[in-house]
Amino acid sequence: MKKVLIIGGGISGLTAGIFAQKNGFESVILEKHHTLGGECTGWDRQGYHVDGCIHWLIGTKEGTPINELWKTVGALGEDVKIHHHESFLTYEHEDGQQVHLYRDLERLKASWLEISPEDKEAIEEFCNTIEKLHSFEIPVGKPMDMMNPIEKIKLMLSMKDAGAVLQKYGKIGLTDFAKNFKHPALRGILETFLPDGYSASMVFFALAGFTKGQASVPAGGSKALAMRMKERYLSLGGKIEPNCEVLELEIEEDKVKKALCANGKSFTADYFIAAIDANFFFEKLLKSKYPDPQFQKRFQNSDVYPVPSELRISIGYEGVPSDVPRTLRFPVVSPFLVNGKTMDRLQLTNYDYEPDFAPEGKTLFSVTINQFNDDYEAWDNLSKEKEVYRKEKERIGREVVKAIANRFPEMDGKLKVLDVATPKTFERYCNSYRGGIIAFAPTLESKAMDHSGKVKGLKNIQLSGQWLQGTGGLPPALITGKASVMRLCKKGKISFKQ
Ligand SMILES: Cc1cc2nc3c(=O)[nH]c(=O)nc-3n(C[C@H](O)[C@H](O)[C@H](O)COP(=O)(O)OP(=O)(O)OC[C@H]3O[C@@H](n4cnc5c(N)ncnc54)[C@H](O)[C@@H]3O)c2cc1C
User: In angstroms, what CA-CA distances link 190 with 87, 88, 130, 315?
Assistant: First the structure.
């Protein structure tokens, strides 16, 4: 039996492990942390459960290929309830006007027309484009590098609607796109939908997935999903080595022989799958000796390929709100600074649909603030002095509580900061490059990544995980984890079992 060593027990590593076991390999997952799931996780604070990841999971629509794949790895299943929130986002303009991105596209259209009848043409075009993209399904079958020319043509044809939207909106920024609308609140929701400099096409892909029921939230959240996958892996006979960070690879000629770990253990195998951060893999584990042009281009050009991270401020509310939508973006009455930037609007997530995330009669909220290149530098500097870093997190926590209490006066005195996670947090826990929470951002000049994970010059190791496809996220972690085992099966002339 051939042995596969999987470095990293995030969603990609777990997926690779599950398919390795299903296909007759002996596998071991080496994980740096004491728990599995990587960035798809959650943690407990003062009686609350902070959900650290899933805002939306692509793949929740029954009967779709990606839904089947999530079920195969145990992440979803008949017994896993799905929360289909009615609105993707509620945007509150400075004058109090609320704009909703409803799941029901007809309701979205009607509500926008009610706000601004003079924007009829732009609203119809907006909704028609979203509807057109309902045909798009993220491909989960064979990876491109294993397809024959006919399979590649079929894939291209299946993506023609997505291609048309990318062609039309791919090079238009959100601020420019928003100018198609006359009403300031409609312009506001679109301008702030994603950070400045992102392509407008992303709005359509996000809302197409949401309005067709493909982007919802599994009950129990991120950690529960990862734990279901871990159980599936163990039930198939997989082995896990927690607290086992790989720091070095022993390489002879064109093959990896051994993984050497921080805890003194070492492991040999026939094949290696590095389901970890791409920068850590190329720069640290492979010591920059196997440079990859696609990644080099991106790592060396951070303006075109910024890596999104975030500040995540978790708040406990001693009450159950009656009028807070699931996701609310609201103006801040007394704006404050984060890394020299003015925070005049915050995004709040209300987890009241998950009573187990808070003690009885209380509710978990989180506020997320986008962070990019220079923010990472600022946090990196701050973190060099523990006390200064801690105080800055505390200050931001206080400002966030103040902003929520200003918006919802009935909550004043009943809000407490549970936790502030910064880009350094994600870096520390997951070795993620610049605290990245997803892969490279879709800016106007960037090209979408599509990488096989193969390493030129090394025959028995491949990279897997979110960095290989598009803007990353959970679906690429899943899909590339499976693809890495499909390649091993091809190598060993084994017919791949799904
Ligand atoms: C705050 C936040 C919100 C997010 N929201 C969403 C969302 O709503 N929807 C969505 O689709 N995605 C979301 N994402 C992104 C999603 O979590 C990631 O895309 C996905 O979890 C990445 O999985 P992965 O397996 O590729 O990598 P990772 O999760 O990074 O897993 C890598 C694993 O390898 C381990 N590791 C690293 N180096 C080593 C080493 N040297 N030796 C051993 N182990 C090592 C790490 O500890 C980690 O467990 C979010 C992420 C964050 C952080």
Answer: 15, 13, 14, 27
- Helix-helix angle 474-491:11-22, to 10 degrees: 30
- Give the CB-side neighbour count of residue 321, counting CA atoms within 13 A: 29
Domains and CATH numbers, the chain: 3-79+219-303+443-491 (3.50.50.60), 101-212 (no CATH), 309-435 (no CATH)
What span, in angstroms and rounded, lies between the C-alpha atoms of 409 and 431?
40
Ligand 1 pocket (Cβ < 6 Å) reads 7-13, 30-33, 38-40, 52-57, 245-246, 275-277, 280, 310, 312, 426, 430-432, 437-438, 465-466, 472-474, 477
Q: Are 201 and 442 contacting, i.e. CB atoms less than 8 angstroms apart? A: yes
Q: What is the CA radius of gyration of the chain?
A: 23
Tens-place pLDDT, residues 309-352: 999 999 999 999 988 999 999 999 999 999 999 999 999 999 99
Q: Compute the half-sphere exposure of residue 292: CA atoms within 13 Å on the CB side of its CA.
A: 26
Dist. CA 471–CA 307, nearest whole Å: 9
Q: What are phi and psi of 481, to 5 degrees?
A: -65, -45
Residues 404, 315 contacting (CB under 8 angstroms): yes
Exposed e or buried b for every residue in 89-110, given b needs 16+ CB within 10 A? bbbbbeeebbbbbbbebeebbe
pLDDT digits over 55-89, tens only?
999 999 999 999 999 999 999 999 999 999 999 99
